[in-house]
Amino acid sequence: MKKLTILAWFVLMAIGLSAQIDSTQFMKQLCGLEGVYDVKPLETKKFNEKYVLKIEQQVDWSTSSKGTFGERIIVGIKGLDKPTVIVTEGYNASYGLNPSYEDELSNLFDANVVLCEYRYFAESTPVPTNWDYMTVDNSLADYHHVRQVLGQLFTGKWISTGISKGGQTTMFYRATYPDDVDVSVSYVAPLNRAIEDGRHEKFLEKEVGSKAERKAIKKAMQEFMKRKPRLMPMFTKFCKEKNYQFYIPEEDIYDYCVLEYPFALWQWGTPVSTIPALDASDKEWFDNLMQTADPDYFAYPNRYMPFDVQAVRELGYYGYSLKPIKKWTSLKNTKGYLKQIMLPDSLRHYDFDPTLHDRTVKFLKEEDPKHIFIYGEFDPWSASGVCTWLDCSDKQNMRVYVQPGGSHKARINTMPADMKKEIIDRLAEWLK
Prior knowledge:
Blueprint lengths: L1 H20 L3 H7 L4 E6 L7 E10 L9 E10 L6 E5 L15 H6 L2 E5 L19 H15 L7 E6 L1 H12 L6 E5 L11 H9 L3 H16 L1 H15 L7 H18 L14 H11 L12 H11 L21 H6 L12 H12 L4 E6 L22 E5 L13 H14 L2
Parallel strand pairs: 4-5, 4-6, 6-7, 7-8, 8-9
Antiparallel strand pairs: 1-2, 2-3, 3-5
Helix pairs in contact: 4-5, 5-13, 7-9, 8-10
């Protein structure tokens, strides 16, 4: 009898799931929108209904002659008249397929979600793939088009948000289409002024953490280099087992992993106490380096190559200082490393254009949108964040919040209680 009861329960669950994914009125509305296609229901634990779909976008928004592609969009609905969060993702949006996915703002304000995959990533890649059209302005036009199409259904207020590169995109989107949304929240978003911005090296050398912590990291970098003759065979074996391939010699990649070590450690909030003792084994030191600065970051084929192209052209990036390891490295300098290590020869012809940076700075200084910026104090990306120069003292709306001791994982929910309350109260007032 017990087995029959359990079987009956599973049958009922299956029937319920089938009912959940049958065509609904909202799904019919989605399918009726111009340019929307391939609409599929998704399992969800957070929304009333959830779908993945494609929206037809132009490859080049300055002309229709270059053709179109489908941008993958994930939509979670709680109510058509509720606020809608448009997530200006900077990368692959596959994580949104998870039944447990819900954006922080959607959770805080009972809002719908429109998660947009960035062009040239995963299922949102034009075919053929012409990299000339992988520009920020084209991506912003994509988001503007999504807002126009889905705004026909979602009638409440709109919030744009994103994390890291997605946070940058939120910033650029607000500066370019200021009336598309009512509120914006950018998380841990840098605003770099060159391919190698120049502020991150100083931050890591003199500003982040305590003097003792910075000294410990410097000693660790030097220990990695001193042990290189013994660790290099482990490194070669590790890369072979992972099938990593590189554009430069493996010996130089090792040195770049050591240079990346302090940035990666602080970015993700790894405690300095995890650095092995000087008398620890070679394996302990090797494992620590791989756990903190895996050479996968420098390997190809690189799933982040679309970002690297944009970093070279418009977004900028960070540089490295050779000073801590100069005595042991064969690298003469690291200038231009991003093109050399991250891009194939066919994509190294692009040069950096500061126009995007300059116009965004101008907008944020002169205007006052309802925009909140979230940063982590010890996140190296904060060195080029608006938190370093944006003065909100004469602004009525814009605010910058920095989590004390925070990393790239800084969010509203990680803020100190008083700061968190202030942010939520401000957003709630804007969303009335």
